[in-house]
Write a structure and sequence with these properties.
By secondary structure, the chain is mainly α. The protein has 4 helices and 2 strands.
Length: 111
Amino acid sequence: MMFLQIVQHGVNGGITSLGLLAATGGGALIGLICFLAGLVTAKCEGTIALKQLLLLPIGAFAGLFGSLCDSLLGATMQYSGYCVVRKKVYILILFVILFGVICCLKMISYS
């Protein structure tokens, strides 16, 4: 695992400033849509309506935090490889496989 190093395009867990900006902007946009929907559907007045503007920075933070968590999980628990026989890229996610094995074992123990 590499921290604060330049990696090739497409490496699991890689982060770009454009990607972080897009995630933050996307979260802020969702916060803005929620704010506008609240203005249209709820009967909030004055200062209460202005307090709903907190949805913008909360949404922006959620977008940024979610993107960083996704990159961390991609860097630590995801593996991509290339199958020379099928000539395809495959992705192995350790958590998904482990979860599947645990579910199978639980189903076997119930029967």
